[in-house]
Write a structure and sequence with these properties.
There is one protein chain. The chain is mainly beta. It has 2 domains: 33-406 and 479-493, no CATH class; 418-466, no CATH class. It is 9% helix and 29% strand. It has helices at residues 3-17, 26-30, 330-337, 347-355, 366-374, and strands at residues 37-39, 46-47, 53-56, 81-92, 100-101, 108-109, 134-139, 143-144, 150-151, 162-166, 174-184, 206-217, 222-227, 241-256, 288-300, 308-313, 318-323, 376-380, 400-404, 412-415, 468-471, 473-477, 479-484, 489-493. The chain has a 15-stranded antiparallel β-sheet that branches. The protein has a 3-stranded antiparallel β-sheet with strand order 16-17-24, with no helix packed on it. Strands 5-6 form a two-stranded antiparallel ribbon. β5 and β6 form a beta hairpin.
């Protein structure tokens, strides 16, 4: 579907919205069949201009800095902070040289071995094809209310209806990218003055430019709107407008700050690097912090007993977004925790969930279904105990979490001061970086003992304990968080000193 068609669709929707639509009550909504509206998007792309931005403007803090450099008026003080996000982009993942663009929107780029060097691509073919589209629908799924009573237990007589937005079940990888600025010390009035007026650089502050590139997709994500179900004499939330969002993300992530230097000489300016506010730079290839083979599932809310709710904070326009607290009701939290029968503490439930990772729930295993609906996970890299994938090498750039120098940069020293051997007799005997062992690890008692110093420390030179490794890539390994359960959280948007 071309952009012109999408524009026509949006204009049509705007025209319809002015045609006197009437609200539906619960009975009318419950009568809907749930087929929904399919949104099929072929050859789709969303690209803001590289200099278009969203901005969060700070205010002058208490104990503000008034000087610059190493003077008393620039010590133990604060500066106003402004954040800007430029050129937000949703476009095709770039796999071949010349198919993508740098932030100037004119210079072609080479995606490189990591395929993460091009921030802007083209149109996404089959972003949501006709046979696997985005879906919007109203229907009445089963759930549990805040008091633990079943909701819509009888499909022939539903009592609650929701609006639901479903992402496709599978998608090609695409790019989500933007570049940004963190400015400290600005004094301009954002409502009347340009970005170049009263800059932080001119007031003793500073400026940092960065880029964020995500290559992946959000297939399987779910967003729902419904009426919350808390009742009673003095409810905390009440039967208010409620939302839930189950976020599925998979792909690769890169965050970098080094700008491109055409001759690798810090003493000569590069035509592609800039510290001018609002001017898009070209960032260096490959450099930065990378997360490869990321898979994240974050469930925020459950039908109909936990939800995201909005609320006002004060009278100055501040607001909160809260994931409601789990009710102190055994029927509700037993479903929320998804505990296996007889497992009051949850250890065995968690163990089996890991052991059966990737396997479908058994038929009619409601505990398994409840657990996987409410427990999230975040996985960086594809290695875990018992898996076929091997561990990452110290300079691996194909998996896990790693730092990478720019293409033309010299190697840097990766450093780790860590114990190399753990003595089976306990921490008292474990090797420190300044100690050398001469123990037979196959025999618990066969260690050469230094009679002067005692313990299994050999009277010899300390040796090389700096453990430095010159490299242009250093892999930190894989990381996994399983069984992620969020009982309650609240985000509050406040002016400085306003909450």
């Amino acid at each position: 579907m071309k952009t012109t068609i999408m524009s026509t669709l949006l204009l049509t929707a705007c025209a319809v919205s002015q045609a006197g639509l009437q609200p539906m009550d619960e009975a009318e909504m419950s009568a809907t069949h749930g087929a929904g509206i399919a949104v099929a998007l072929d050859d789709f792309a969303y690209l803001m201009a590289p200099t278009s931005y969203l901005e969060q403007v700070g205010t002058t803090p208490a104990n503000a800095c008034t000087g610059s450099g190493t003077v008393a008026s620039n010590l133990d003080c604060w500066r106003r902070g402004d954040l800007r996000w430029y050129g937000s982009n949703l476009s095709s993942a770039v796999n071949v040289a010349g198919a993508g663009l740098h932030w100037d929107d004119t210079t072609t780029c080479n995606p490189g071995a990591s395929a993460m060097n091009c921030p802007r691509g083209g149109q996404i073919a089959d972003f949501s094809p006709f046979d696997n589209p985005y879906l919007m629908r109203a229907w009445s799924p089963e759930g549990m209310d805040y008091q633990g009573a079943p909701v819509n237990g009888n499909p022939n007589s539903p009592t609650k209806t929701i609006y639901e937005y479903l992402a496709p079940t599978s998608q090609p990888d695409y790019l989500l990218s933007f570049w940004g600025e963190i400015e400290a010390g600005a004094t301009r009035d954002p409502s009347t003055q340009a970005l170049t007026v009263g800059t932080g650089l001119a007031n003793g502050g500073g400026l940092l430019k960065s880029q964020t590139i995500i290559r992946g997709n959000a297939a399987g994500s779910i967003f729902r709107m419904f009426r919350f179900t808390e009742t009673g004499a003095s409810p905390r939330y009440g039967e208010t407008f409620a939302m839930l969002y189950h976020s599925y993300l998979q792909g690769d992530f890169r965050f970098s700050v080094a700008q491109h230097d055409d001759d690798n000489n810090p003493n000569t300016p590069s035509p592609f690097a800039t510290d001018v506010i609002g001017q898009a730079p070209r960032f260096g290839n490959d450099e930065g912090l990378h997360f490869r083979n990321v898979e994240a599932f974050l469930p925020l809310g459950q039908l109909y007993y936990q939800a995201l709710v909005l609320n006002a904070v004060g009278t100055s326009g501040n607001f909160s977004l809260e994931l409601t607290q789990m009710p102190n009701n055994s029927t509700v939290y037993s479903r929320y925790y998804g505990l296996n029968d007889g497992d009051d503490l949850g250890y065995e439930t968690a163990r089996l969930a890991l052991a059966n990772l990737g396997q479908p729930c058994a038929a009619n295993d409601q505990n398994c279904l409840d657990y996987r609906s409410s427990h999230g996970h975040i996985r960086y890299g594809d290695w875990y105990p018992g898996a076929s994938a091997g561990r990452n090498s110290i300079d691996d750039t194909d998996d896990g979490i790693f730092f990478r120098a720019c293409v033309d940069c010299a190697p840097f020293n990766a450093y780790a001061a860590r114990s190399l051997v753990i003595d089976k007799r306990g921490p008292t005997y474990s090797r420190q970086r300044t100690q050398n062992y001469n123990c037979d690890t196959g025999n618990a008692g066969n260690c050469t003992v230094d009679t002067v110093n005692g313990g299994p420390v050999i009277a010899q030179s300390i040796g090389d304990y700096t453990r430095t490794f010159p490299t242009k890539n250093v892999n930190l390994g894989d990381a996994r968080m399983e069984g992620l359960l969020i009982n309650r959280f609240e985000l509050i948007s406040c002016q400085a000193g306003g909450c």
